[in-house]
């Protein structure tokens, strides 16, 4: 590994849009960088090379550029914001400083989590009542499974004020799965049918991931919780999906209103402020802890994307049973 | 204890017939074909006619006597047909209790393999294999595959360690041995990846959420029930190349195609092959057999739990494959570096 490779990393790219004459618009969390076709190809090669064992000579051959000019290119990419120096990261920071940093990337993370084609499909009328129902069933399981991770996070939180905040959150949330049960009953399912059903693997994976976070670090757990709560900060973010789906797929109003009641309750409890309240009790975070916590947050984002993929794939197949029942030696 | 024991001992009165949920029924010209996994039975003439009349009630809630009265049939005739279907494997008699002994560990072993063979079919048919063999997979998908295999194998530390630490007395020696034999295997894959990436990058790389899902499911089950855990892990072991000529040939063909289309993976494939050889030398294919020999007879609840875990594991394995195929296509960054304060 060369010193350049040890010093630089590519910034996370949230979206790449094609623009005129082969140029690209690269969206980072804080800016959009526009590159011409040749610059974009060079940037791609540098970003890929940074994490390899290949030397500078190899890169310069690939770039068809004199080796002496490579540092200048890397410098230009750093200036544009596409690369950053690892050394520039602070060694420690306060909990509130961390929260400010988290808040500045949350929107980009949420856009990444919800950029799955499923949403566009549902909003454009290419979805189905079956997909809407499947999504609701999985939301029921996901909400019920809060009982698998929320109390575990309380058990593993060591400081009194943080324990208290996590426990209060649990007390306010533990039985919210009833709202989804109500919706599903209006879609023709019975309570025993839903209660005996099993979630999709990716729905289960979400709660297993939250359990993993709860055991490792209360801030790792809390950032995941904050990402999830970030989806419900105001009605504008979720109303269009439910309203449009109800209209397009003939979902009865009675099946949608419990969902709104649940979301309104989240807003009322101000659960989206919880992460800041927790971080107020954290005077200092090391760079290593910051990395761990951010990793959990971003992995949760990726979990949401793949969760959506899993739901669409399963419920799109007409012959797949809805709801899913557990294996039974007599019945299967 | 064997499955051939009296119905009472099996926890069923043989009175509540239940057509297996995943059985398919097809019929034409007075003939009916019922299929379940690899079992099949053909009914013709009066048998087909009687089955048609009985089928709405084959949900495990109606007694044979009641069905016969409803259809003005002789109960013996109804029972004879249903027992024939049971023998063919497409129908069962529902049990009311979960806590009676159902079968021995060795009977479970056979049943487990029958089900797992069927559940693994989708994994073997996954489009990702074809993409690699024909050279249509992208660089990110191919290298991503190697990284995800590394993360999965490296996770033996997590789930095998947890399983050994939470094992029942019968399972402990097997799970301890398995952990001790497997915990270095991640390094075999790491060695292959080191031909392309620095060690530090490999060690800090992040698995896909789907790989994490597979590992976490193993971890969670390992904490809860050591036999059910291994029932799931055995399904994963069944996908390894055990030296069987036919399966081995298919795997070699896959590696050859990979070397041809993606020459930079040469040393990665060497590491895959080295891992297969290491596993073959350890004879891991016998591990579950030995466990099944050691455990006390299993109740219906235990059988259902262990088979549910195996089925869920098959679904998680599909998710693992889907993740590599879909995620690396949509997000082609590989290796997946960890976040830090400036990366976002």
Could you write a compact summary of the structure shown?
The complex is a heterodimer of chains A (332) and B (344). By secondary structure, chain A is mostly helical. Helices cover 64% and strands 7% of the residues of chain A.
How would you describe this structure to a colleague?
Chain A has 332 residues and is mainly α. Chain A starts with a helix and ends in a 17-residue tail after the last helix. Chain A has 2 domains: 3-88, Outer Surface Protein A, domain 3 (Alpha-Beta Complex), CATH 3.90.930.70; 92-315, Up-down Bundle (Heme Oxygenase, Chain A), CATH 1.20.910.10. Chain A is 64% helix and 7% strand. Chain A has 17 helices and 7 strands. In chain A, β2 and β3 form a beta hairpin. Chain B folds into 2 domains: 16-99, Outer Surface Protein A, domain 3 (Alpha-Beta Complex), CATH 3.90.930.60; 102-330, Up-down Bundle (Heme Oxygenase, Chain A), CATH 1.20.910. In chain B, the strands form 3 sheets. In chain B, strands 2-3-4 form a 3-stranded antiparallel beta sheet, with helices on one face. In chain B, strands 1-5 form a two-stranded antiparallel sheet. In chain B, α12 (209-224) runs antiparallel to α17. Residues 1-11 of chain B have low confidence and may be disordered. Chains A and B meet through α5, α12 and α17 of A and β5, α12 and α17 of B.
Q: Helical proportion of chain B?
A: 55-70%
Which chains make the largest contact?
Answer: A-B, 54 and 52 residues
How many separate domains of chain A? 2
Mean pLDDT across every amino acid position of chain A = 94
Rg of chain B (CA only): 24 Å
Overall spatial form of chain A: globular
Secondary-structure content class of chain B: mainly alpha
Number of helices of chain B: 17
End-to-end separation of chain A in angstroms reads 55 Å
Supply the number of structural domains of chain B: 2
Strand fraction of chain B equals: 5-15%
Could you give the order of the helices and strands of chain B? EEEEHHHEEHHHHHHHHHHHHHEH
Radius of gyration of chain A: 23 Å
- Looking at CATH, the homologous superfamily of the largest domain in chain B is Heme oxygenase-like
């Amino acid at each position: 590994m060369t010193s350049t490779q040890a010093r630089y990393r590519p910034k996370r790219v949230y979206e790449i849009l094609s623009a005129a004459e082969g140029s690209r618009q690269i969206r980072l969390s804080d800016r959009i960088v526009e590159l011409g076709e040749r610059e974009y190809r060079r940037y791609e090669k540098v970003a890929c090379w940074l994490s390899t064992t290949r030397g500078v000579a190899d890169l310069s051959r690939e770039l068809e550029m004199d080796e002496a000019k490579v540092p200048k290119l890397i410098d230009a990419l750093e200036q544009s914001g596409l690369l950053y120096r690892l050394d520039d990261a602070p060694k420690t920071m306060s909990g509130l400083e961390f929260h400010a940093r988290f808040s500045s990337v949350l929107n980009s993370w949420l856009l990444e989590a919800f950029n799955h084609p499923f949403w566009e499909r549902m909003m454009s009328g290419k979805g189905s009542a079956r997909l809407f129902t499947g999504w609701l069933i999985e939301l029921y399981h996901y909400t019920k499974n809060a009982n698998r991770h929320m109390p575990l996070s309380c058990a593993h939180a060591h400081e009194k004020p943080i324990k208290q905040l996590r426990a209060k959150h649990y007390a306010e949330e533990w039985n919210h799965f009833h709202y989804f049960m109500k919706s599903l009953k209006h879609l023709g399912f019975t309570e025993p049918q839903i209660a005996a059903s099993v979630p999709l693997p990716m729905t289960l994976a979400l709660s297993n991931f939250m359990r993993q976070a709860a055991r490792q670090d209360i801030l790792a757990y809390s950032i995941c919780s904050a990402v999830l709560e970030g989806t419900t900060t105001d009605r504008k973010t979720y109303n269009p999906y439910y309203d449009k789906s109800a209209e397009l797929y003939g979902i009865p109003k009675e099946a949608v209103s419990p969902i709104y009641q649940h979301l309104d309750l989240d807003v009322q409890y101000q659960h989206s402020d919880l992460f800041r309240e927790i971080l107020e009790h954290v005077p200092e975070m090391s760079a290593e802890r910051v990395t761990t916590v951010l990793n959990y947050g971003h992995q949760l984002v990726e979990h949401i994307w793949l969760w959506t993929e899993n739901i669409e794939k399963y419920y799109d197949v007409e012959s797949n049973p809805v709801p899913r029942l557990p294996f039974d030696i007599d019945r299967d | 204890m064997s499955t051939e024991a009296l119905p009472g001992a099996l926890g069923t009165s043989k009175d509540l017939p239940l057509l297996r949920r995943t059985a398919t029924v097809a019929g034409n010209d007075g003939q009916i074909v019922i299929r379940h996994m690899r079992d099949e039975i053909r009914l013709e003439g009066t048998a087909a006619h009687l089955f048609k009349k009985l089928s709405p009630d084959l949900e495990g809630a109606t007694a044979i006597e009641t069905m016969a009265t409803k259809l003005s049939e002789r109960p013996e005739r109804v029972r004879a047909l249903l027992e024939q279907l049971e023998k063919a494997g497409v129908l069962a008699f529902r049990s009311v209790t979960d806590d009676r002994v159902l079968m021995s560990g060795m009977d479970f072993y056979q049943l487990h393999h029958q089900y797992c063979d069927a559940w693994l079919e989708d994994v073997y048919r996954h489009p990702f294999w074809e993409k690699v063999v024909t050279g249509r997979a992208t660089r990110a998908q191919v290298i991503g595959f190697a990284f995800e295999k590394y993360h999965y194998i490296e996770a033996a530390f997590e789930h095998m360690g947890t399983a050994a630490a939470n094992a029942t007395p019968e399972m402990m020696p097997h799970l301890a041995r398995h952990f001790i034999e497997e915990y270095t295997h991640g390094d075999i894959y790491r060695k292959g990846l080191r031909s392309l990436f620095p060690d530090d990058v490999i060690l800090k790389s992040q698995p896909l959420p789907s790989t994490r899902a597979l590992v976490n499911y193993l971890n969670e089950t390992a904490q809860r029930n050591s036999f059910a855990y291994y029932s799931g892990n055995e399904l994963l072991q069944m996908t390894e190349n055990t030296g069987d000529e036919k399966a081995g040939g298919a795997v070699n063909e896959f590696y050859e195609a990979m070397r041809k289309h993606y020459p930079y993976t040469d040393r990665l494939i060497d590491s895959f092959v080295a891992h297969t050889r290491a596993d073959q030398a350890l004879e891991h294919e016998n591990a579950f057999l030995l466990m099944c020999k050691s455990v006390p007879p299993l109740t219906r609840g235990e059988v259902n739990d262990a088979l549910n875990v195996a089925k869920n594991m098959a679904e998680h394995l599909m998710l693992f494959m889907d993740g590599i195929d879909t995620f690396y296509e949509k997000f082609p960054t590989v290796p997946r570096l960890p976040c830090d304060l400036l990366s976002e």
